[in-house]
Amino acid sequence: MKIGSLTISNRLTLAPMEEHTNFPFRLLMKQAGAGLVVTERIDAADVARRDRRAMRLLYTQPSESPRAAQISGADPDIMAAAAQVVAELGFNLVDLNFECPIRRLLARGEGGALMGSPERIGKIVDAVVRAVAIPVTIKIRSGPDADRETAVEVTRRAEESGVAAVSVHARSVQQAYVGGPDWSVLARVKQATCLPVIGGGGIREADDAVQMLAETGIDAVAIGRGCLGNPWIFRQARALLSGGGRVAPPNPTERGRLMLQLIEGEFHLYGQPLALRRLPRMSGYFAHMLPDAASFRDAVRQVKNLPQFRRTVRHYFG
Ligand SMILES: Cc1cc2nc3c(=O)[nH]c(=O)nc-3n(C[C@H](O)[C@H](O)[C@H](O)COP(=O)(O)O)c2cc1C
Q1: Domain residues of the chain, as ranges?
Q2: Could you read off the pLDDT of 216-233 as tens digits, one per residue?
Q3: Its pTM surpasses 0.90
Q4: Which CATH class is domain 2-241?
């Protein structure tokens, strides 16, 4: 798949997830086989003024390339200024969020609130495309609610403004994350545009990715919750797509190794106090395949430092 001048090596991408898709997470998914990785949504105003937290979320290394950073906002000038920071930091793409259903954002007329205003989305895209040389992509939903599907209109307007690809989460903004996605919207968007279309929503196993691509004719899929504690979903889906057959999940030792890579990265990125606060949740995703997952989770709650966590991992994962 090509997004503007950028070549993406396969049809599997990481979906942006707040609190999750930081640098160590993205690197892990890239190593597991994701063709493109992306940061979580970051407020454009924070990026434009190089706020400390925003800059940490934008921490990147060439090893995770190609990588995108996602920004949100409603002011074209601020979005353009933030996109310039993203480009300067070395990201290969800037992704504009018009899908976030969080109430705080909707109240400010940002994120998913813009799915009702294709014209305003067009103006934001105009400004960002003019401001940066890297390709600009958008992430949208089917529409504001079940009765209003605006995805096709938004895509056409953004295409006129020079966007390089569109990523569609096949749920409405009102749905947030509840209820099944409706993949048929992905096919409608694909038929209406010449842009590469990335689809997401409801991919839990490798087979789901293959099915979404086959059913909708889109160019690539974005895997969200399906890769939490399960990075090998990318390898499994890649094998299926290239006709290589089924790849079994790794053994516990390998799962423990991958989890440890992520957690060590978190300690490095955040420092010990914050990494420890995040530890039960982040390691918990990898525990579900353990026979004694509850006991592992209890042990993790007692962990006070990284060496102690390493010992806990060795004990439970071998
Ligand atoms: C915890 C969580 C955080 C998310 N954060 C973002 C975000 O920052 N930006 C965004 O565009 N989408 C975000 N999403 C939506 C995902 O990118 C994806 O579109 C959605 O989860 C559908 O895919 P899934 O059903 O495979 O999880 C988030 C989803 C989850 C579950």
Answers
A1: 2-241, 252-317
A2: 999 999 999 999 999 999
A3: yes
A4: alpha beta
